[in-house]
Amino acid sequence: MGVEHEKWATDVLKHIGVNPEIPAQVIDEEQDVIGDQPDGDDQQELKTGSQEQVETGSQVHVKSGEKAEEQGTGDVHEQVKDDVQEPEEIAAQDKVEAEVQEPSKPEDVPAVDGDVSKPDLILPEDGSLQEASDVMAIAEREVGCGEREIKFTGFSSCIGVTVRDGTKVKGVHLALIKKDGNPFNKDDAAKVLTSLGTYSEAMIFGQIVFWKNPANQVADAFKVLEEGLKAGATKEDGYKDFQFDDGEYGAEINEDDDFFPTF
Description:
alpha+beta; 6-stranded mixed sheet; 3-stranded antiparallel sheet; 9 strands; 17% strand
């Protein structure tokens, strides 16, 4: 059965023009798929060339990276250079800031003797005392404050109550009879003391004998004035009084820094 089949196959091959004596050509499918491959030398050269290309590309990449790094470093150096000031510039800037922010020196601020936070005069609300428009001509029932000196208008039966507060001189021109026709009283004396504020020295001068005479109905008020001024003076033995006849008087702090009446 096998021999007959082989003979049949041979006859078929001959019939279609194929010589059964010639071996059939075997087709390499892997070669067709892959395509023409270079021989050993060419393949080695290709591999070497590819490696060189990779290495060259890597070198180019490294150099590019180095260049970029150098450029970045240069930018940082330029930025640091811009941010860093020269010593001369810093010194000049510090000098300007010091001139702007430098506080006033003690010698630039005028010395003030006394408490500047308090008002010079405290006038009574009832209007019994008015502030003088001219501290060198303080009239009856007026109170004034001047720098180192004040003056009153003429005295007849009047007295001047004066105090020293630092370099300021304050004074009240008092008359026996008030504007409403009533004698000066103890309540009025208290208002006078309040109006003068704080002080280190005090004086009363003028027609003191009239004010101490009980017949004039002001002796009690005068005593309140006298005792109040003594108690208010912060300087030891800071109170004094002077009996003067009619005339024009004042008070000053003289060049020897003494507090005395003026004529």
